[in-house]
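Risk register update: the risk of archive-format incompatibility is retired. Evidence:
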Amino acid sequence: MAPQVAYGGGIVFQHMTAQALADTPQALELFDAAQAKGISALAEVYPYDFGGSIVAADYLHPDNYGPNMGRTYKDITETATGKPLTKERYEELMKTAPTTNIMFKNATEDTVRGALTHSTSVVGSDSFPYVLKKDGSAVLDWETPFEAVNGHPRGAGAHAKCCAGCARG
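Archived output:
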């Protein structure tokens, strides 16, 4: 029995390109097949080829990140400093501050563009809170100057990036 028939709903795949990576086109084909059977299927895609997390996220462990995403330490950026990680800095953070906010490369730009133009896709724009450049603490004051913070661009730029992409064709 189809999920929609059993539960009265469909499926939403959050952060599709970040989760499916190079398999995104095949995942979208499954969504097409589901829709052809009358099952609602929606792919949420953010318009960036990178995401945000904490340094200790399981999928960023070198045994996962390299083989599964084709990436290295330099593709992980410490949010507070804006600097790419090295093996040494990664290991230091894992020991001393495993919840440090980071940004990391995931799906390719071509994969993201392909997913954004698919008929089952919608744009997502979640992100981490901004942090103070001076100490990496969370920004809680609305009056904090933008120049004093670092954060994930999705927090402010998802709509503009999509509109700019549409304008370019």
